TrEMBL record:
Domain Acyl-CoA dehydrogenase C-terminal residues, every copy: 229-361
Keywords of the record: Oxidoreductase
Name of the molecule in the record: Alkylation response protein AidB-like acyl-CoA dehydrogenase
Domain Acyl-CoA dehydrogenase/oxidase N-terminal: 27-90
Molecular function per GO: flavin adenine dinucleotide binding; oxidoreductase activity, acting on the CH-CH group of donors
Record lineage: Bacteria, Bacillati, Actinomycetota, Actinomycetes, Streptosporangiales
Record has Protein biosynthesis as a keyword: no
Database matches in Gene3D superfamilies: Acyl-CoA dehydrogenase/oxidase, N-terminal domain, Butyryl-CoA Dehydrogenase, subunit A, domain 2, Butyryl-CoA Dehydrogenase, subunit A, domain 3
Membrane-crossing residue ranges in chain numbering: none
Pfam families, A to Z: Acyl-CoA_dh_2, Acyl-CoA_dh_N
Length: 383
């Protein structure tokens, strides 16, 4: 049991903003090398980034959703891949708090624990002794290369032969890293595939998926909380795109025109206004989503299916708006801006990749929410 002072939400956001200066300088290196620099991971650890969603009794901060979203946004303003890895760790930690006390002791006894995870059950688990044995493979796990624990998903076959979808907490040292991160964006997140070969997991570190998806008041279900993490990251990337464009627009002529600067061109005015309005909308949805999570926690209210679906839809909408804003700003340049090391284009790649993630896909989230509004059952477990 640790009794350490817990920083305020404002202090945590300020720490993330200060950390951003260091992350920004190593973002291009991380993208080239497919993983965050060791100094980046160390700096994030020292700033308490990985404690954000760890229970206070283990020295964590138990930050509220508004703080988590704001910290994610500050990190993403500097390095979207680092923010995405942090978001993956927070989401896995949030799920970890729903496991029995012994499992939490195993995982959180070091408050700066780094985690990663997936909900995709691409492994099989069979009951053996006082636990399960897992065999399988998971692909494209953000943060796997530097994590200490992974939240894995598997289909458990019981004594009756019937499969059930479970989550389990596994040390990454018990897994084998394979492949890498071959997506066009978020390349510096330390993503990799992981493989379990006859890995034993004790029963106290196994949880039915439905328990994590439903949550237990006052703690929000897993998907709405993960949606907050993703939305904050997307907003931060969109802000970074606007800042990167603002730096470019103040110098240099617009190629092959008579305008003395990009800022003098009417098309620039239209593009900047359009992108800024979209970022404003994305910020609104992020605040509303975080407010929903925090409000229900404060009132210790259970979540309805419609609210859970709305949370996922709002995360998708944030990603859609942020991606459109970044694409608009990236398209407002000229041939001098088309370089691999151009931050604006890296940001656009990051948002394009985020928008295709299954839990933040705009069209999938909108369809899910619309089905619930029409009184139809969801077309997915992940809500």
């Amino acid at each position: 049991m640790l009794n350490l002072p817990t920083p305020s939400g404002a202090e945590l956001v300020a720490r993330a903003a200060d950390l951003g200066r260091a992350l920004r300088g190593r973002a291009a290196w991380a993208e080239r090398n497919g993983a965050p620099h060791a100094e980046t991971v160390e700096a994030m650890t020292l700033a308490g980034v990985f404690r954000l969603c760890v229970p206070a009794r283990f020295g964590g901060y138990e930050a509220d959703a508004a703080t988590v979203a704001a910290v994610a946004a500050e990190l993403a303003r500097a390095d979207g891949a680092a923010a995405w890895a942090a978001a993956a760790s927070w989401s896995a930690a949030w799920a970890g708090t729903m496991f029995p006390g012994q499992a939490q002791e195993d995982v959180f006894r070091g408050a700066d624990v780094r985690m990663c995870g997936t909900l995709r059950p691409t492994a099989m688990a069979f009951e053996t002794g006082d636990g399960i044995e897992i065999n399988g493979r998971w692909g494209q796990i953000a943060g796997a290369a530097h994590s200490q624990w992974q939240l894995i998903a598997a289909m458990r076959v019981g004594a009756d032969g019937r499969p059930t979808h479970v989550l389990a907490l596994v040390r990454t040292s018990d897994l084998r890293l394979v492949d890498g991160w071959d997506a066009p964006g978020l390349r510096g997140c330390g993503g990799a595939g992981t493989v379990a070969d006859h890995v034993f997991v004790p029963a106290h570190r196994v949880l039915p998926l439905r328990d994590a998806l439903r949550g237990t008041a006052p703690r929000a279900p897993l998907v709405p909380f993960a949606s907050v993490c993703a939305a904050g990251t997307a907003v931060g990337l969109a802000r970074a795109a606007r800042e990167a464009f603002s730096e470019r627009v103040t110098y240099g002529r617009l190629a092959d025109t008579d305008y003395e600067s990009r800022a003098a061109a009417p098309m620039t005015h239209l593009q900047v206004a359009d992108a800024t309005m979209k970022i404003d909308e994305a910020e609104f949805h992020t605040r509303r989503l975080a407010g929903l999570v925090d409000g229900k926690a404060a009132r210790s209210e259970p979540w309805s299916l419609a609210e859970r679906a709305r949370a996922r839809a709002e995360a998708g909408e944030v990603c859609r708006l942020a991606r459109q804003a970044a694409d608009t700003l990236a398209a407002a340049g000229d041939e001098t801006s088309i370089r691999d090391d151009e931050p604006l284009h890296r940001i656009a790649r990051d948002l394009a990749t985020m928008s295709l993630h299954s839990l933040t896909h705009p069209a999938t989230g909108a369809e899910l929410y619309g089905r619930t509004l029409c009184g139809l059952p969801p077309h997915t477990l992940y809500v």
